[in-house]
Amino acid sequence: MAEQKLTIVKIGGNIINNEPDLIRVLDDFSKITTPKVLIHGGGKKASALIRQMGQQPKMIEGRRITDAFTLDIVTMVYAGLINKKIVALLQSKGCNALGMTGADLNTIQSHKRPVKDIDYGFVGDIDKIHSDNIQILLQAKFTPVFCAITHDQSGQLLNTNADSIASYLAGGMSHLFSVDLRLCFEKKGVLENPDDENSVIPKINYDTFQKLKKSGIISEGMVPKIEGAFHALKNGVKNVYISGIESLKPGKQQKGTRLCL
Amino acid sequence: MAEQKLTIVKIGGNIINNEPDLIRVLDDFSKITTPKVLIHGGGKKASALIRQMGQQPKMIEGRRITDAFTLDIVTMVYAGLINKKIVALLQSKGCNALGMTGADLNTIQSHKRPVKDIDYGFVGDIDKIHSDNIQILLQAKFTPVFCAITHDQSGQLLNTNADSIASYLAGGMSHLFSVDLRLCFEKKGVLENPDDENSVIPKINYDTFQKLKKSGIISEGMVPKIEGAFHALKNGVKNVYISGIESLKPGKQQKGTRLCL
What we know:
261 residues; alpha/beta; Carbamate kinase; two-stranded antiparallel ribbon; 8 helices; 36% helix
């Protein structure tokens, strides 16, 4: 069961910001021969647009506060500008891409994050992946390209972390496919020494993760990223790698950091 | 052959601008029981955003000049803000909507309009509808929702008239379906007297169209709209109506202006 392979690739905001990197990664992605899904982060453009409109981006501890104005901005930038640019580029490379939010085909359902200490505004925490509709697309040899917007199925769009989308999506598809999840970012993997690009930790299991967290080697944004990845593994995802964009190259040996339970 | 009905509805910018109208029309659209496609215009938001960013919208004879900056804006507003808002609203009404540009699944291929007297910039004239991919979506009971953006299959997005998309799409699907095309706008149909909302001309054939054009009763934006509609009829579309949003109501008798060859 679940023998067919599905490759899910998430590319981070810093790759989006760097056009030559983006084109290279899309070129490699388009050559992946298994069914595949791309998820992309937002990049700096949303904050730049907010500033161009005379406002200040609202961030608390590195996380965006999404008021109604900001939701409109991220919907425009993520689902419009970035998503459609990626789709057009992939189509030019022969990859039959379909740009989506979680609202499209009700693929990713979430709820507005409840207000505790901080009111994050229109931010969605994922409840459910509707894998049946995604499977229909994959069976037709279409390549879904998701941006970081979901919905609550009551008409409300919600800003949602792209790493979370990647992990939930991978987990949600794992009863249908043997899923490889690749979280690609600007570094080659999880680094033992942040100043040494070549100090990639080849393998992290849940125990080592706890130790690396305690010692401060894994910190900040890397913590939820890896927690999400473990969530995916617990939900049946076969392989999870945190790696640089070079790892997508066909036949490439360097795979970044592999996570295992 | 081509016995299954397909309803293609285009809603204009003035409906988009009016939120209660938009919600009402989406409510009626979601109740259409045949396979269906929605195409939406842009509304005033793109020009408003251009102004908010300290620039002036560039128009010649009522048509937008789409430089690189403006293309980014319309991609954000049409494919992001408006398209995803419509998708989320339709999903809340139980309609399994999928928001798209012509780049998605390479559904609508166009070429950049050649420069003659006027350089319209990144504006696309449609070459081809890829009906096979749209048919796969319809067979899965998905409802495509197109905004007015296409691509040239070489990585370039292009701003494209929504009426043209509706007419070409209707024509392009007519070998597979018996297509009804409904071009909905803020008036009840083509008016004999622009000051009398109830002077709807019930039926226009190609000869009457030429006469109405000469007499000035049909002018400006209505001319290309109707020309596109005749193009659709010539390409096998079964019925074309130009009508108000009320005409979408289930069981409604008032159908606006019917076009016939």
